[in-house]
Design goal:
Elements: H1 3-15, E1 17-21, H2 35-38, H3 43-52, H4 60-69, E2 74-80, H5 106-116, E3 120-126, H6 158-174, E4 181-185, H7 198-208, E5 213-214, E6 257-261, H8 278-290, E7 294-299, H9 309-325, E8 343-348, E9 351-356, E10 364-366, E11 373-378, E12 384-385, E13 400-402, E14 415-421
Parallel strand pairs: 1-2, 1-7, 2-3, 3-4, 4-5, 6-7
Antiparallel strand pairs: 8-9, 9-14, 10-13, 11-12, 11-14
This protein binds ligand H79.
Pfam families: Alpha_L_fucos (PF01120)
EC number: 3.2.1.51
InterPro entries: FUC_metazoa-typ, GH, Glyco_hydro_29, Glyco_hydro_29_N
């Protein structure tokens, strides 16, 4: 890794767990943030939600406390999504929270609240914009007006959109203090790379915020041996965990962050109760860490500004696990051992963490580890765990063994054994 790159991504690679927040006008129709595209809603048809947006229960300090209690180290919130609506007080548009009944800059309150809790602060910014007049509409793949004939011969000047987009990024990186992550979304087809004037954009960003960590969705190839200047600092697999982590073409691991929804929508969807359990979340987080990546877990607050209670309860349970087991997450990465049958390994220096998902039968074996473990402790309470080869395992001299009492694991979510390596 280049030195400046290694330096500026260090905190990101150590943090491992963040909160994604998708919030905007789409919380009112409550069918997800793609509602305009999916239902081909015009700006006028979407207008009532702008007139109505009044999140009287918005309290980002509560969100920040929840994120922190869950063990998250950073957050990324939608400053603007594809619908073009700005939660921040941009001087470059009237299509912003300031002119809704909310009447103020909601991003500023988010940034201040999360910073106050000691969390790193990120902003999501959609480079796609379905509200701006100079963004391609008719014939585009996903624009809400893609097959509205009225837009067919409407001339646009895309350069004007780019000036606007660059100008808004400049506002976000000038007016809110230190921004830790910039999360662009997303490039497609020929709408990629220099089509966004990406090199110029990234240079401007780094001049304003030298330490900012940027995702890879301006385009380019982050896996190339010599990536474009705009190719980004981390890969951003969406709604999936990569099978074996992510490496560049030279085989060197690159930072990555899987973004995953807690139910099946990013933006609030009142009918979607399909929430992942705390167990699924913890095991997913551990899988990311075991492959050298981060988990950015999404919440979609409702129109009042409330994070759904199901999400709150899941995050609190994740937090209970993190309280006892976070040492096996923060600063940890992949171990140079194959995935064991009972779960996964994470590692931080000479501490190897065995995440037991499956008790199985008989003693638990650490393949190839005989003589390499100085001591073993249950991470949650520090209790001694004896590393001993029981009589029935004498024919496996390469492996280390522990014998856990009981037929079930003490923590059904993930029982972590800390192995101090000799
Ligand atoms: O902000 C969240 C999403 O709105 C955005 N990225 C995350 C972080 C995103 N969603 N989908 N995509 C990016 C990729 C596009 C997927 C599509 Fe489709 C498949 C567009 C058209 C077909 C999904 C399915 C959206 C509409 C139908």
């Amino acid at each position: 890794m280049r030195n400046d790159f290694a330096e500026r991504t260090r905190w990101f690679r150590e943090a491992r767990f963040g909160m994604f927040i998708h919030w905007g006008l789409y919380a009112i129709p409550s069918r997800g943030e793609w509602v305009r595209s999916l239902e081909k809603l015009s700006v006028e048809e979407y207008r009532p939600f702008f007139e109505e947006f009044d999140p009287v229960r918005y309290d980002p300090r509560q969100w920040a406390k929840l994120a922190k209690a869950a063990g998250m180290k950073y957050a990324v919130m939608t400053a603007k999504h594809h619908d073009g609506f700005c939660l921040f007080d941009s001087k470059l548009t009237d299509y912003k929270a300031t002119y809704t009944p909310a009447g103020r800059d909601l991003i500023r309150e988010y940034v201040e609240a999360f910073r106050e809790e000691g969390l790193r602060v990120g902003l999501y910014y959609s480079i796609i914009d379905w509200h701006h007049d100079d963004y391609p509409a008719y014939g585009d793949k996903i624009h809400p007006m893609r097959d509205n004939e009225a837009f067919k011969n409407k001339p646009i000047e895309f350069g004007r959109y780019l000036d606007y987009m660059h100008g808004q990024v400049k506002e976000l990186l000038t007016n809110y203090g230190k921004i830790d992550v910039m999360w662009f979304d997303f490039s497609y087809d020929d709408m990629t790379g220099e089509k966004w004037r990406a090199t110029e954009l990234v240079r401007m960003m780094r001049s304003l915020q030298p330490d900012i960590v940027i995702d890879n969705r301006l385009g380019g190839n982050i896996k190339a041996a010599a990536p474009e200047e705009y190719a980004g600092d981390f890969a951003s697999p969406e709604q999936m965990l990569p099978a074996e982590g992510i490496a560049n073409e030279a085989g060197r691991p690159i930072p990555w962050e899987a973004c995953i929804t807690l139910n099946d929508h990013w933006g609030y969807c009142s009918s979607d109760r399909n929430y992942k359990s705390a167990k699924t979340v913890v095991r997913g987080l551990v899988e990311c860490v075991s492959k050298g990546g981060n988990l950015l877990l999404n919440v979609g607050p409702d129109a009042k500004g409330v994070i759904p209670h199901e999400a709150v309860e899941i995050l609190r349970e994740v937090g209970r696990w993190m309280d006892a087991n976070a040492d096996s997450v923060y600063g940890c990465g992949a171990a140079s051992l194959p995935k064991p049958e009972w779960g996964r390994y994470t590692q931080n220096g000479n501490k190897l963490y065995a995440h037991l998902f499956d008790r199985g039968m008989g003693p638990t074996s650490f393949a190839g580890m005989n003589g390499k473990i100085k001591r073993a402790r249950l991470l949650a309470d520090g209790a001694e765990i004896k590393v001993e080869t029981p009589w029935m395992a004498y024919e496996y001299p390469d492996d280390a063994f522990v014998t856990l009492g009981g037929a079930e694991l003490p923590d059904g979510i993930d029982t972590v054994i800390e192995l101090e390596l000799a």
